[in-house]
Amino acid sequence: MNDTTMSDSTAAAVAAAAALAKAADQPAVKVHADKVDVYYGDKHALKAVTLDIPERSVTAFIGPSGCGKSTFLRCINRMNDTIDGCRVTGEILIDGGDIYDPRLDVVELRARVGMVFQKPNPFPKSIFENVAYGPRIHGLSRSKSELAEIVEASLKRASLWEEVKDRLQESGTGLSGGQQQRLCIARAIAVSPEVILMDEPCSALDPIATARIEELIDELKANFTIIIVTHSMQQAARVSQKTAFFHLGVVVETGPTEQIFTTPQDKRTQDYITGRFG
């Protein structure tokens, strides 16, 4: 990013906003983005995105294909770092800390900010090893029994334990699509992240599996900050408490989900929701 360290005034403002939110019994801000721009070479993909993500809730990003939703999502755990020619400017803070500070350990950041992708991508390992991988490499367990406890707890939180408890040594790739996606969610939460990013997690699933994932998202928001990119406005309405509408690389409008879908303030939002474009 342009500035390598967060200014004292910005940190103070974020802390003050968190204190005000707490006093008003509103969710504190977990992720704060300020004037974020993303460039892929000469292409200006995101333009001055400023957005607050409340903690322990679900925030949905909606908008037509190519509008910048997934690009911004990948900024939050710095996955765009892996793309040649990608440049990010502006500021993204998690709990007031600048995630683009050059002193930050990106591996540790990605443990704090888990990711679930559009297509289930279990490792070609056993169900147990899929979930145990993160805690093992991050040194979160001191013994085999402690690791087994983490695996069991993660699978239970992902509503998968009862289906796989007798087949933990079987390959994770042998599960159904919906089970594979819940395995990937278990893998993500096994390292106790604070934020979970979900990039269209149900687009490859059937309606029954989608319903299971949506129920799981609703349960997980009690402990995690969840950000979901979805092309399904019905899904956004069902699972999220806050919605941001992206269009042509700009955040057009953001607010409580019910407000965005019933009384949007911007005509572009209304046109998208009513199907006039997208």
Main attributes of the structure:
278 residues; alpha/beta; Rossmann fold; 6-stranded mixed sheet; globular; disordered N terminus
Task: Explain the overall architecture.
Helices cover 38% and strands 24% of the residues. It is an alpha/beta fold and 278 residues long. It has one domain: Rossmann fold (3-Layer(aba) Sandwich), CATH 3.40.50.300. The strands form two sheets. A six-stranded mixed β-sheet has the order 6-7-8-3-9-10, with helices on both faces. Helix 4 packs parallel to helix 7 and helix 7 packs parallel to helix 8. The longest helix is centred in the first third of the chain and has 16 residues. It starts with 7 loop residues before the first helix and ends in a 5-residue tail after the last helix.
| The named CATH superfamily | P-loop containing nucleotide triphosphate hydrolases
State the low-pLDDT regions, or none. 2-6
Outline the biggest β-sheet. Answer: 6 strands, mixed
Strand arrangement across the biggest beta sheet: 6-7-8-3-9-10
- Quaternary structure type: single chain
- Overall shape: it is globular
For the record, the CATH class is: Alpha Beta
CATH topology-level fold name: Rossmann fold
Count of individual domains: 1
- From the coordinates shown, what is the CATH architecture? 3-Layer(aba) Sandwich
- Taken in chain order, the helices and strands follow as HEEEHEEHEHHHHEHEHEEHH
Alpha carbon gyration radius? 19 Å
* N-end to C-end Cα span: 31 Å
β-sheet strand percentage: 15-25%
Whole-number average pLDDT?
92
Please tally the helical runs, counting DSSP H or I stretches of 4 or more residues. Answer: 11
The portion of residues assigned to helices is 25-40%
By DSSP, the count of extended strands is 10
SSE-based structural type: alpha/beta
